[in-house]
Amino acid sequence: MSIVNVTPDSFSDGSRLSDAETAFRYASQCLDEGADILDIGGESTRPFAEPVPLEEEWTRVGPVLELLHERLPVAIVSIDTRKPEIARRALASGARIVNDITGCDPQGEMPHVVAEAGAGIVIMHMQGTPETMQVEPKYQDVVGEILDFLADRVRAAMKAGIPAERIAIDPGIGFGKTLEQNLEILRSLDRFRKLGHAVLIGTSRKRMIGELTGRGVSDRTSGSVASVLFAASRGAAVARVHDVAATVDALRVWHALEQSHVG
Ligand code: HH2
């Protein structure tokens, strides 16, 4: 899953694309490099980011979705949004998946919007909100609590009419988690996989990679790729990444070796 940020303030330079044509060109390049899904986002969710008003978010993502639908209708597009109305409009404009960092809250409209459109959903865990989440994340049992949260939200999504095979789960790396907690989650991915849904992982260029390597945001490709290979080896099905070519190459080599090992 390739990150296509149409935001003026996302944390990672490479995918900070504000103009629809530029975003479209970047998205088609990602497909050429081997991405299977384009994740279009119009609101940065980096720690301490300010929320974006609905119409402003739509002004950012709407034109990109239209260009993709017009020129690359076979591309699988997901919309990275926490707003049901943005999801509704995006699904009507050709997106097929909603990537909801607020976990498809059953108190809100999101489960119904996704169910009615027959779309897929990524249910992510976050402690707090992007404005507050990194202040002092606290858990008794980080993996157990996230598993319980995801299992509850999956149940609610299915009750709203989203079929099991259209639901992916994501522990939300960096969303209200310390470095140690992120590492514990990644080491426990097999427990997430046992919930029976595709597991998505977003480590790309995040602070945890910076903390482990001492590198700045634009220099975290190798560290990010290493984390994707580890996650894939523990059963993650989807990786949300900035560096598509490097990740796809690494996954192809890893996959060939895995197969020869099994065979
Ligand atoms: N991380 C970010 C945004 N959306 N969605 C999922 N499912 N999982 C993630 O880990 C995830 C996500 C981080 O967002 P942002 O700060 O906007 O930066 P970028 O989009 O450049 O990664």
What does the secondary structure layout of this molecule look like, with pairings?
Layout (H helix, E strand, L loop, with lengths): L1 E4 L14 H13 L4 E5 L12 H18 L4 E5 L3 H9 L4 E4 L9 H8 L2 E5 L17 H18 L7 E4 L8 H9 L1 H5 L4 E4 L5 H7 L7 H13 L4 E2 L4 H19 L1
Parallel strand pairs: 1-2, 2-3, 3-4, 4-5, 5-6, 6-7, 7-8
Helix pairs in contact: 1-2, 2-3, 3-4, 9-10
Bound molecules: 6-hydroxymethylpterin-diphosphate.
6-hydroxymethylpterin-diphosphate binds next to strand 1 and strand 5.
The overall pLDDT, averaged over residues, is: 94
Poorly predicted regions are none
Task: Name the CATH superfamily assignment.
Answer: Dihydropteroate synthase-like
Portion of residues in beta strands equals: 5-15%
Described by strand count, sense and barrel closure, the largest sheet is: 8 strands, parallel
Helix content: 40-55%
CATH topology: TIM Barrel
DSSP summary, beta strand count: 8
**Cofactors, ions, other ligands:** 6-hydroxymethylpterin-diphosphate
Radius of gyration: 17 Å
Strand order of the largest sheet: 1-2-3-4-5-6-7-8
Instruction: Based on Cα principal axes, name the global outline.
Output: globular
How would you characterize this protein structure?
The chain is α/β, with parallel strands linked by helices and 263 residues long. The chain has a single domain (2-262), classed as Dihydropteroate synthase-like (TIM Barrel, Alpha-Beta Barrel). The chain has helices spanning 20-32, 54-71, 84-92, 110-117, 142-159, 179-187, 189-193, 207-213, 221-233, 244-262, and strands at 2-5, 37-41, 76-80, 97-100, 120-124, 167-170, 198-201, 238-239. Strands 1-2-3-4-5-6-7-8 form an 8-stranded parallel β-sheet. Strand 2 (37-41), helix 2 and strand 3 form a beta-alpha-beta unit. Helix 1 (20-32) packs across helix 2 (54-71), helix 2 packs parallel to helix 3 (84-92) and helix 9 runs parallel beside helix 10. The longest helix is centred in the last third of the chain and has 19 residues, at 244-262. The two termini are 28 Å apart. The relative contact order is 0.11. The model has no long low-confidence stretch (mean pLDDT 94). The site of 6-hydroxymethylpterin-diphosphate has 22 residues, from strand 1 and strand 5.
